[in-house]
Amino acid sequence: MNPQFIRNSILALIGIFLLVVMYSCANMASPNGGPYDEKPPRFIASNPLPNQTNFKGNKVEIEFDELIQIENPMENVIVTPPQRMLPVIQARGRKAVVELNDTLKPNTTYTIDFTNSIADNNEKNVFENFSFAFSTGNVIDSLEVSGTLLNAENLEPMPGITIGLHSNQADTAFRKLPFERISRTNDKGKFTIRNIATGSYHIFGLNDINRDYRFDQPGEEMAFADSLYTPTFQFTSRNDTVWKDSITVDSIKVVNYTRFMPDDVLLLLSKEKFERQYLTKSERTQDNRFTIRFNAQIDSIPAPRLLQAEAVQDKWYVAQKAEENKAVHYWLTDSLLWKQDTIRVALDYLKSDSLNVLRPQTDTLQMVLRKRPEVKKKRKKGEPEPIVFLGMNVDAPSSMDVFDTVSVVFDEPVLNIKKEAFYLDRKVDTLWQEVDFNFIPDSTNALGFFIDRDWKYGETYRLEADSATIYSLYGKWNNVLSTQFTIKKQDDYGNLYINLPGVDTTAFVQLLNASDQPVRKAPVREGGVLFMDLKPDKYYARIILDLNNNDEWDPGNFAEKRQPEPVYYYPGFFTVMQNFDVEETWDVTATPLIRQKPLEITKNKPKEATKKKRDYKNEGRQSSSGNNSMPGMPF
């Protein structure tokens, strides 16, 4: 054979070998072990058997086809009838083990609802809506009731709320007896109570703070259905779509199933108008003021009685409600008092007793001044002491809305203030013309006042006050004030009118921002509601049927069998544009209540389950952009 041919063949083989090695270096990948597990655990066996009757034990073992875990079993696993002694729920390898510590009731169907708590140990694939049932008698009860629970005031779906049944139809059952069967709402506010016996039931919702399955604390939010429900079922069918892929339909098949009813129970959760009332704190943070705080809003200001031996003025304090009427500031008017380190007072107020009844209570309080001594700045010889003016905060933005007022808030109580302390001028061409205004004390803040008038679009105003015309209780006086502001023009706003067919009762509409907070409120008149001078924006809306005409939403009351006042949400939004009039029609009952609240302003958004999608064939593949060789490799 020709030596040249042999040599060329060897060189060619070497070249091919080098190319193969270089390709391998540029496409190295770690072993992937094949496809990832995307299937949830599968039930394979149990002791007792599913739906077994005449069970006598107290331990349930359920076996799956792979290692499992149970997420937060004390919260997510529901055993019904409810247990007085908490069960022990554990994952042991491939088994879910439930040990019941209560004595099992005879002739009773028990349900262990794992909800979505069981998942495989590695990939966390969830076995959704898994429940297990057995009976201590000869029969397995199999009826179901399902529905939705919403917050009555804002239609939020409420997760984690206990739903309970009572066959006992006495009004006292909800307060005195634990539920016979229970479930819990999921992240969408939906619930299903399983394995119910034939009969008629009252259905309740309860934010069960003390976990005793009864409504025995006023602080617990509750819901109740007005009528009895009798569970039943029917055999029916539905059409299921079979997909070839994400966009192509393979076929439509008919699936037979059992429909349990009722499956549309709607419960509205609210907290009755009652709060335990008690004093939480008393403190003296500055020499001329002490503060009393309560846990709830108070209707009237308690009048403290001095226990000091020193004589003081008859009117020795000025009271100021604060912190949304949950606190009172007492400003001391007598220098003999505020110069003392400790002030002792007797305070008469109303406090809730063990039966939640308000009773007169008297406490002796010691107000000790706790404050670090102020470090005075050194002044040059002959330099006068600086004047500390009365603090006066004036809220008058340079561009003000036509529906706003000017607010004036002082740092300290002021003496005999009158509207004559202020001057309000309107600009006419280039001149200022004095105009009248209303001077209104702030009903919620004793240190605040409002300056208001019928503002006109586009007009400019000037608010002034001379120096030393307003004096505080402690001798401070105001500095000179001069501020200007202009009312926005009419074409800066839009107007919205909403027709409300069928709303023939006392009601009001609230416009809401993107945080579900009210920004405007107006009453319904003659089948509609008008909002003038709205800032251009996107608005959501809800209507409250104010049945008792007190201009606020009222919760339900179980003892009075009174449901919360009805609330409806507009299922979309209104877009208000500058210099436009918008008219819309809203049929408040056209959309089912559970679908009314827009998802954008719903705070308790459902947690959609998302399956893990992995490209296991290419996972682990490594590449180097612009260079086909791996770092450290000699190629």
UniProtKB/TrEMBL annotation:
PROSITE patterns: PROKAR_LIPOPROTEIN. Residues 598-609 have a biased composition (Basic and acidic residues). Residues 621-635 have a biased composition (Polar residues). Keywords: Signal. Residues 37-136 form the SbsA Ig-like domain. The keyword Signal applies. The keyword Membrane does not apply. InterPro entries: SbsA_Ig. It comes from Macellibacteroides fermentans. This is SbsA Ig-like domain-containing protein. Residues 598-635 are annotated as: Disordered.
